[in-house]
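Protein modeling request. Please complete all fields; requests missing the sequence field cannot be processed.
Requester role: graduate student
Desired output: 3D structure, token encoding
Chains: 1
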Amino acid sequence: MSSEIVFICGIGPGSTGTGALMIGLMAEAAAGTPAEFIVKEKTPRRRGWARLQKINPFRVAHYFFSRVSFPWRVLRAAKSDKDVVMLHPQTIGFPLFRQVMEARPHVWMYVLDAFVFCRRSYNCLPGETAPCLRCLGNDGAAADQHGCQDWFGSGPFQQHFPAWVGSGRLRLMAQCESHARLLRTHFGPGAVVKVVPLSVPDIAVPSSAPVRPVRDRPLAVFHGSCQPAKGIVHVIALAKEMLDWDFLVPSDPKEYLQHFGSMTDLPANLQFRRLSWSEGLAEAVATADLVLCPSIWSATVEGAVLKSLAHNGLVMVTTHDSSFGSELPADARLALDPADLRGTAARLRAIQADPALAESMRISARTYAEEYARRCRGMLNGIREACRPAA
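Delivered output (391 residues):
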């Protein structure tokens, strides 16, 4: 095959998640690493849709062309001599994904989440404080036993992936080593799995350290959403253990209610305030006494963790074997142990009482963030190198 690459993704450029990743890869391509991108344009929001109709009919036409022509463009690329890299197959759709597989000797997939083995995609169960790995390395029968709903249409993929991966026809790229271990455990030793670090925006370490205000009570900021997999239950439990601290959740109560149904028994030192990175959260993270990123699921590379390390440096994570937090150096993070909240709180208070130790951890955290930024720089070229056959 030629060294040219075509990326196929069911999500177009956007401000968050996969959309932001696509923007980054496209920027690298424009800067001199040639690649082709076949994506679906996002459905405009109602207000944005009205604006498009009124102001720019050409953009409306482009949106419709992108959606209608997507399958044709994908199949044309599948029959080319370019390396094909698929992203977010749930939004590509299984029938089209299978057609691409049948048209080529092999296909690469950059794996973005846990849906390859977990029907929920976020592999954690309600009421549990550790990731669920019951379906890892097997046929997923436990998903039926626990009533896991297939919100992301993962079923057909999970049924066919083991044979495709085992035969070498579907080759995988993982975001980090803990992610690669999960994939190899699930698909077996015959799986082709290469690690290409995920490029994450906003992880450049600021040139000057933020000025933290003098507070009567220390402030911990949760860098995550109210989605249960992100670990807000750990934040609440720690807040109850540390009533002399304040805890900030960057969401509004409605989002919490959507997931948990009730706000009873929440501690008084827990505050909800809707923030985004560009509108208040970056400052809140940078000036907090502690940042919490205690994901429960088997998180792949987490932008929230990396941004918190770069902009604050004193970050508490969960460190189970399948978490991205487990890859951080011990001197660059604090570990939250759900089974020992009293001990977790004691370690945190000891750090807070020792400014020199806290600053040492912040230096280690910033060093790790800088090193990660170097490794993920040029992600597109890293993908290109991974596609090349071994010498």
